[in-house]
């Protein structure tokens, strides 16, 4: 299987906010071979605390995203430390000076990568978990004649009020650390990062996950061991990067694209792509009820709930076998 890391220089990008992301670079990974017609493409935008490697358990010959037939590309979000981010931007955009980057800014730049670099003529599927799902919705609205199918799992077409409250809470846990210093830190704000991870853990899984001690299936002997893992895992992330992506997440709303008329409902109704929308039954912040509202406004969409007690993390690539089988079945149904 052919694999490649691509670093695509975009130059200065004018953002939806009117600000400028200077000397922007989009990093992506590709798997498989692009067809002569350049139309066998699957796009997997990255999620909040992930890079392109997060999708690796689902990509390959005969896998959920089958490289025997498809050219799979995973573009990294701005702010994730690979594509242009507070941690690697030019000085005028670095750290707390990083501009507001919306979901549509990411999608429009990803479109440039696919069309300018690869000459893509058709996208067979845009799919993704969590923030990857958010981007899939935005792709379908922004490019209705290019995107044939979407499969957003454990995500939404906009950031709901309850989701906003959740994000405000984890942000507060990070920024209350005095070392954070409004983003002007000289050393990582470790107390804030650990608090961010500990608070996030309570939202990532369901009540049943904790009640039934399902964390033991992840190899943890105690609940404290799970919490410690979440603390340590978030120490690996740059604080300003986490907050830049969080603000991108908060910006999510398919009705916000400047070239669109109307709002959220009209944007959803404009989607031409065939769609299977897959929330997790027990997700605490991307709920099946919110997904049902979205599907009502989409002309070619099916709601197919992932049955799992793993909450939002049911959708984590490769994490729960039963959930991944449900996902694989939906991919087969869309592409078959």
UniProtKB/TrEMBL annotation:
Transmembrane segments: none annotated. Gene3D superfamilies: alpha/beta hydrolase. Residues 52-150 form the AB hydrolase-1 domain. SUPFAM superfamilies: alpha/beta-Hydrolases (SSF53474). GO terms for molecular function: acyltransferase activity, transferring groups other than amino-acyl groups. This is AB hydrolase-1 domain-containing protein.
